[in-house]
Design goal:
Blueprint: H1 3-18, H2 22-28, H3 32-51, H4 76-88, E1 95-99, H5 105-111, E2 116-121, H6 124-133, E3 142-145, E4 162-165, H7 171-184, E5 191-196, H8 198-201, H9 203-215, E6 218-231, H10 234-244, H11 248-251, E7 261-271, H12 284-295
Parallel strand pairs: 1-2, 1-4, 2-3, 4-5
Antiparallel strand pairs: 5-7, 6-7
Length: about 300
């Protein structure tokens, strides 16, 4: 290990002490090579994105590395792409759950007349905003004020055909979202979409996560790299630039100082159980319960405040 890499390892260990964010702590704990891979991918995609003259970037001068509730809203283009994905997969008449929606995907789904959309979020102000923006929707959207750190309440147990979530980029929060998904989703003929930066999670952690998903009755159907784009504020851009300073191959590229966007991949997982087994007069409801009970432990659920339109 050269001196630059050794100093970066030491610096990362020191910085971890000062950051409360699990996402920043997670990225700082990545190995030197993992950090380099993560930063290079972000840089290259930034160059490609800026070269095609995207106009959605808004210059946010905030120096906060992590916004309230780990929110990092995506671009309008990304929001529409997610709605396109759900629409093309034939989910307009299905039970759709959005776990967290600072990206305002529910607004886009309301405009497209999705019939059964539910939003869970821990931010009351955001929920009130979404209620106003979707107040004229043809099909009312259900809003619940829920903190996923405490799990999914039993009244939402196995109700949803499709779930979409965009968690904070660290293994701990991703684990929380996945456990919530496996409690809320129907196991028969269901899908979920997970938005994560695979490089930020790290190869070893991602491998464990994929294995857990497979063991929980789902398989990876599709992965779309750089599917999601998020404008960065000034502080977030500076942090990425500061870390990149220790990699000679990166710091030679001056464009990285003006890194404007963050990107994540879209993973689509489908249930290994489909409706064809009903031909044998199989009780699908019982089958779902048997599968889910195998993987999900009982959780003591507190009482939640519920917000509805």
């Amino acid at each position: 290990m050269n001196l630059s890499n050794a100093f970066l390892v030491l610096l990362s260990k020191v910085l971890i002490i000062f950051f409360k964010s699990r996402t920043i702590k997670h990225i700082l704990k990545l190995s030197v090579e993992e950090k380099k891979k993560f930063l290079l991918k972000i840089l290259n995609e930034n160059q490609r994105y800026i070269d095609i003259e995207k106009e959605e970037y808004s210059d946010n001068n905030s120096l906060k590395f992590i916004q309230n509730y780990n929110q990092l809203p995506c671009t309008i283009e990304t929001r529409k792409k997610r709605a396109d994905l759900l629409e093309k997969n034939g989910f307009r008449d299905k039970e759709v759950l959005l776990m967290g929606d600072d990206d305002l995907v529910s607004v886009e789904l309301a405009l497209r007349n999705f019939k059964h959309v539910t939003v869970l979020d821990c931010d009351k102000n955001l929920l009130n905003k979404l209620k106003i923006l979707t107040s004229e929707a043809k099909f009312p959207i259900n809003f619940f004020h829920i903190d996923l750190n405490h799990g999914i309440p039993n009244y939402l147990y196995k109700l949803f055909d499709v779930i979409c979530f965009d968690p904070p980029q660290n293994s701990k929060d991703l684990d929380i979202f996945l456990h919530s998904t496996f409690k809320a989703i129907k196991y028969s003929n269901s899908s979920f979409f997970m938005m994560v930066n695979s490089s930020a999670i790290g190869e070893k952690e991602l491998s464990k996560i994929i294995k857990f998903i497979n063991n929980s009755g789902f398989y990876e159907h599709n992965k779309i790299e750089f599917f999601n784009c998020y404008p960065l504020n000034k502080g977030q851009s500076i942090l990425l630039s500061f870390i990149s300073f220790f990699f000679k191959s990166i710091k030679k590229n001056k464009n990285f100082i003006n890194c404007r966007y963050y990107f994540t991949d879209c993973y689509e997982f489908k249930s290994t159980v489909n409706l064809e087994i009903s031909k044998d007069n199989y009780d699908l409801k019982t089958h779902d319960e048997n599968i889910s009970s195998k993987y999900i432990k009982d959780i003591s659920i507190p009482i939640y405040t519920i917000s509805r339109p």
